[in-house]
Design brief:
426 residues, mainly alpha, 19 helices, 0% strand
């Protein structure tokens, strides 16, 4: 079902650095608005999708709508994180020579498949989905983009999702391999192997395209830096604590345990010291307008530090010529990656481990597990109308369970709680 997109606008995409195979779509379709590039069309499709809007109601670190401090009742969600990731990725990708719309599309789409309740919900849904092969948020993103989000249909009447370009789908693949026994992270379920193989045609099975690498690093930068900002702004973290020897040791041990088992605590301590010594590192926070501005400037400074280091290191290896797809790899210096890892651990220690958080996570896991059972028992009537035909046409119990998992994964946090309450009351 390989196809190529035609038209002068498509060929101008990325200043001519992308070929017809990059611009191909799974199902051929005309450009209804001549003058737009293929990647501008991809970006518009993701931006206008219901799946992207639903991210506004999905947990990033704290539950959407949860009041985390006096006057701060709008913590970051999966949507705001995706928008911030997209801004970072667009600029970094463009600086390296990638098409900015292509990288922005990947950043906007990278979390579309994540279920309610963040990674906690993902683990619970993976357990519930074992009879049909498990659940993985990144694989669910590909499934949503190529099957579940209604936009385009093939000659057989089946949905092909948003029908993005090959390069667009490849840029979303953080893990460019199908489900396999030796890893918990993967980019495609067995059911979606055909379109996955089409996307990856001719590519090194273990190598991500440059745009996907930029997306992945932008994701790390966005959530490590912005979660630090939220931790300080919500008064869950007093920055003075990072200079206390006891607090410091626990933070570094957590970094080793959760994010960098390949490192010694002393090396990570050097990374923490570099951060604390930065001219723009925030000192103190009282919630005043001046303090908020200092914190925001520190956020900008950290993002610039992490992205400029990657840009310069990549150019040192690959030269100054613009690079796309498989012409180069993103190079992020080790010391910068360690600094980013320490910031991730700050969030894990001072926000995710807050009082009452584990009780909340237990409740969320229970809701996910019971929702799968309740929907499976009441299907197809209690399924969303868009999924009932999939359930009816499913060949076996595993395929029917996959449809139920699709339903649960699509829900916002609030919708999951509401549906669970309604089905439990029957």
């Amino acid at each position: 079902m390989d196809s190529t997109s035609a038209g002068s606008a498509e060929q101008r995409s990325g200043h001519g650095r992308y070929g017809s195979e990059d611009l191909a779509r799974w199902v051929p379709e005309p450009n209804k608005r001549p003058g737009r590039t293929a990647f501008e069309r991809d970006r518009a499709r993701v931006l206008h999708s219901a799946a992207l809007r639903r991210l506004a109601g999905k947990t990033q670190v704290v539950v959407p709508g949860e009041t985390v401090a006096a006057g701060q009742d709008s913590p970051r969600t999966r949507l705001t994180h995706s928008l911030e990731c997209a801004q970072i990725g667009r600029e970094l990708g463009q600086a390296l020579g990638c098409d900015p719309d292509l990288v922005e599309t990947a950043c906007l789409a990278h979390d579309l498949g994540h279920p309610p309740f963040g990674h906690n919900g993902e683990r619970a849904l993976d357990e519930a989905a074992k009879p049909c092969g498990g659940f993985e948020g990144n694989a669910q993103s590909l499934r949503l983009l190529t099957r579940l989000e209604p936009k385009t249909f093939g000659p057989d009447g089946g949905s092909v999702g948003l029908n993005l370009t090959r390069a667009g789908l490849d840029a979303v693949l953080k893990y460019p391999w199908p489900r396999r026994a030796d890893t918990h992270s993967y980019g495609a379920y067995d059911d979606d192997r055909a379109v996955f193989d089409w996307v990856r045609e001719g590519a090194d099975p273990q190598r991500r395209c440059l745009e996907a690498q930029v997306m992945d690093w932008s994701d790390d930068v966005a959530y490590s830096v912005h979660d630090l900002e939220d931790a300080v702004q919500s008064h869950r973290l007093d920055l003075v604590r990072l200079r206390d020897p006891g607090e410091r040791r626990e933070l570094l041990d957590l970094t080793v345990l959760r994010y960098r088992p390949d490192c010694e605590a002393d090396e990570l301590g050097e990374a923490l010291d570099r951060l604390l010594a930065l001219d723009f590192w925030p000192v103190g926070y009282d919630g005043s307008r001046h303090a908020q501005a200092r914190l925001k400037n520190a956020t900008s400074g950290l993002i610039g530090r992490f992205c400029m280091a990657a840009e310069h290191a990549t150019r040192e290896v690959h030269g100054a010529e613009p690079a796309t797809r498989y012409a180069a790899d993103l190079i992020v210096p080790r010391d910068i990656r360690l600094e980013c890892a320490v910031l991730k651990a700050v969030t894990a220690r001072y926000v995710m481990a807050r009082e009452g958080a584990e009780r909340l996570r237990e409740r969320q896991r229970m809701v996910i597990t019971e929702l799968v059972d309740l929907l499976a028992t009441g299907a197809p009537d209690c399924l969303d109308a868009s999924l009932r035909a999939d359930w009816t046409d499913a060949a076996d119990d595993a395929a029917r369970l996959r449809v139920v998992v699709d339903q649960v994964a699509s829900l916002t946090d609030r919708a999951a709680l509401t549906l669970h309450a309604a089905l439990s009351a029957r």
